[in-house]
Amino acid sequence: MLAACLLTAMMLLVPAPLWQHAGLCELIATYKPWLWVVFLFSFLVLITYPLGWCYSLLFNSISGHFVARKNLRQSISKLQNLSSDEREILGEFLAKGVRTLKFLPSEGVISPLVYDGILVQSSKVGNLVEGFAFTLTDWSWNYLLEHPECVGMSKQDLKK
Predict the structure, then answer these.
(1) Is residue 51 part of a domain?
(2) Is residue 65 located within the same domain as residue 92?
(3) What DSSP state is assigned to residue 103?
(4) Residues 9 and 64 in one domain
(5) What angle do CA 136, 72, 132 make, to 5 degrees?
(6) Do the bridges between strand 100-103 and strand 119-127 make them parallel or antiparallel, or are there none, so unpaired?
């Protein structure tokens, strides 16, 4: 596009005597309206492409921020309304004071916690006997340390 814009601009704006040496004066005169069309189209594309890129960059960063906040609110709501099995699983992390434990992914309790962004499968290496490593995400670890009552524990239980 840049080449088309520059070439047509030169053909349209450079004085005719300079094109006579190259033998292009008649060609330029014949196709002048089409040269203007090509020039305007390529110029508009060159101008609007960066504007569109800036718009999409700005839009994606703003919408990404709101989506992340919404997901965090939903995940915190999930932590506040855990089932008894989920409380037991997450309580193990706090009771042992570790962020990573091994579970079988086939356990029905683990998958919803992974889906909600509370746990992540930290390793694909494992087996069906010992299980696979699952880690509490940073925000969920910090939230559970601040609010151990979500898993049926108290802050005094954590200090032991």
Answers:
(1) yes
(2) no
(3) E
(4) yes
(5) 25
(6) unpaired
The tokens describing 112, both together, are 């919803």
> Quick check: pTM over 0.70?
no
Q: Look at residue 75 and tell me if it is in a domain.
A: no
160 band by pLDDT with thresholds 50, 70 and 90: low
Q: CB within 8 A of 131, min separation 6: which ones? A: 102, 103, 104, 105
5 and 35 Cβ atoms separated by less than 8 Å: no
95 Cβ neighbours under 8 A, 6+ residues apart: 153, 157
* Among the listed residues 133, 124, 148, 123, the one whose alpha carbon sits nearest the alpha carbon of residue 100: 133
| CA–CA gap between residue 109 and residue 90 (Å, rounded) | 10
CATH code of the domain containing 120: 1.10.10
Give the domain range for residue 7.
2-70
Highest mean pLDDT among 60-69, 94-103, 105-114: 94-103
Position 159 scores a pLDDT of 65
Q: What's the CA gap between 40 and 17, in Å, rounded?
A: 24
**H-assigned helices in the chain:** 2-13, 16-20, 25-30, 32-80, 84-96, 110-115, 138-146, 155-159
Residues 26 and 88 in one domain: no
When divided into structural domains, the chain yields a total of 2
How far, in Å, CA of 72 to CA of 84, rounded? Answer: 22
